[in-house]
Here is the input.
Amino acid sequence: MFDVARRDIVVTGYQDAELAASVYSRPGHTSTGPGLFYLHGGGTVGGDRTTGLSFVLPLVLEYDLTPVTVEYRLAPEHPDPYPVEDAFAALVWTVRHSADLTIDPAQLISSGVSAGGGLAAGTTLLARERGEPALLGQLLMSPMLDDRDRTRSTHQLDRTGTWTRGSNQLAWAALLGSRAGTRAVSASAAPARASDLSGLPPAFIDVGSADLLRDESVAYADQVWADGRACELHVWPGGTHAWEVLIADSPMARQAASARSGWLGRLLARPASA
Here is the structure.
C-alpha cells in the first residue's frame, strides 16, 4: 500500500468526450513539480486507469511526482483512432490545466504499461507531428508496439507466458479491424511502423526476455538510437509479460523499479536546455 492522495477529475478526450481521470500526489502536496501522464494496459480492450499503478506510485513518493491516469475508451467498441486520440486530447488537456494540477508542463513525461506503453509512444509521436505539447521523456514498460505479428519473439513465445500470440492477435484485431497487419495502419496506432523517431524526447524501455513483445521493444529502442535520440533499454532475464506483477517482491522486480527510478532521476536532473 502506498501512502498517496487521489483526486478524481474529468478531462476532455477525442471529439470532446468526457473521460474519467485520477490525479495522484504525496499527501499534503502543494508545490508545482514533475508530472507523469500514465496510460494503463489491457490490450486496449480491458483494464482501467488503476491498472498497473504499482509501477508508478513509488515514484510519487520518491520524486514528489504527480501522475495523471486517464480512462481512455476501449476497443472494439471504440477502435482506432479512439484510444490514442483520447490519450492525446487528454494529454493536451493536462498541459492546459497544469497549474491546477500542480504540474510543471516542462517536466511532463508520457508513460504506460503494455498497451498503455504503445499508446504512450503513439501519443508522443502525435505530439511531435502536431507540434505540441513538448514532453520531457517517455517511460514505456513492456510496450505493445507492432501489429504485424512477424518478430521472432511472437513466434518463439507463441503459447508461453501471460500474454500469448493469440491474445496479441485478438487485441490488435479489436483495435484495428481488417486493417491489422496491412499498410493502412498508422504509426500512432502501432508505433513500430514509424520510419523516423528523430525529434522525440528521451525514452526508457523495459521488457522481459520471455515476453512476446520483447523483439518489438528492442527494435524500437534500436530505431530511437539510429535516429539520434536517447533511449535506455532493459531486457529482464526470464521475465514474461507482466512478470513484475506476478513476482512483485522478487530481487529482479526491485532492480527493475530501481532502474526506472534511476532513469527518471537523471532525466529530471538534466538542464532545461539539454
About this structure: The longest helix spans residues 251-269. The CA atoms of residues 17 and 142 lie 28 Å apart. The longest strand covers residues 103-113. The chain is about 35% helix and 20% strand.
